[in-house]
């Protein structure tokens, strides 16, 4: 049979365009075809994979000269160094000044200079009880600020005097006398006087001038 005769015999069996479209739509409506199509999740995953692939793909450097490659390497190294300096190094902890502790059962956090100024003000008013106690607190705070003593909250005046005497042995006698004066004024209600205040002032001035002995410093 000739090709022309073969085509003529088969042509009646071929559908027209409208009928072919209808057959195709029916075939694609089959559930098996729909199951084979990628879902929305599949398409999203594919998009993410393509994005990461584009992001991590090493560019083609065939056309780059040695100078350009050196510049690129220098930029990468610089970026790494900057990143380490900013994020990689441990941050230095800022040493905060330790909060002043209470002195002799009182929640008094004033500095030594503040206590001295208030003691002088009390002395000018003739309030010798306040002047004596404030100036002795200045002695304790001053030694604490210098790191020579560290009386815990609630420490007694006598306990402070013993600890301070170990740090400054030359002042042991004056510390004991001043501690007795403080106790007399505060607890035994014995009146403060200008002379008692002067003794505490002399102790405070001596404590400021005296350096700890090498043995006590270690």
UniProtKB/TrEMBL annotation:
Keywords, in A-Z order: Membrane, Transmembrane, Transmembrane helix
Entry keyword annotation includes Transmembrane: yes
Bilayer-crossing regions: 64-87
Keyword Membrane recorded: yes
All residue ranges annotated as the Protein-glutamine gamma-glutamyltransferase-like C-terminal domain in the record: 135-204
Pfam families registered for this protein in UniProt: DUF4129
The protein, known as: DUF4129 domain-containing protein
Organism: Microbacterium phycohabitans
Lineage, opening ranks: Bacteria, Bacillati, Actinomycetota, Actinomycetes, Micrococcales
């Amino acid at each position: 049979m000739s090709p022309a005769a073969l085509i003529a015999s088969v042509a009646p069996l071929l559908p027209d365009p409208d009928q072919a479209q209808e057959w195709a739509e029916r075939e694609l409506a089959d559930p098996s075809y729909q199951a084979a199509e990628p879902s929305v999740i599949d398409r999203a995953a594919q998009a993410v994979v393509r994005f990461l692939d584009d992001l991590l793909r090493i560019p083609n450097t065939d056309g780059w000269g040695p100078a350009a490659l050196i510049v690129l390497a220098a930029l990468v190294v610089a970026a790494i160094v900057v990143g380490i300096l900013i994020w990689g190094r441990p941050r230095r902890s800022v040493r905060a000044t330790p909060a002043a502790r209470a002195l002799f059962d009182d929640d008094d956090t004033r500095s030594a200079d503040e206590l001295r100024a208030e003691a002088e003000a009390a002395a000018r008013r003739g309030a010798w009880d306040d002047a004596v106690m404030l100036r002795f607190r200045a002695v304790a705070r001053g030694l604490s600020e210098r790191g020579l003593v560290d009386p815990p909250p609630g420490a007694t005046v006598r306990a402070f005097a013993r600890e301070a005497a170990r740090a400054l042995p030359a002042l042991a006698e004056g510390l004991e006398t001043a501690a007795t004066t403080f106790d007399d004024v505060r607890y035994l209600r014995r009146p403060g006087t200008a002379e008692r205040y002067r003794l505490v002032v002399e102790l405070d001035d001596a404590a400021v001038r005296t350096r700890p002995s090498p043995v006590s410093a270690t």
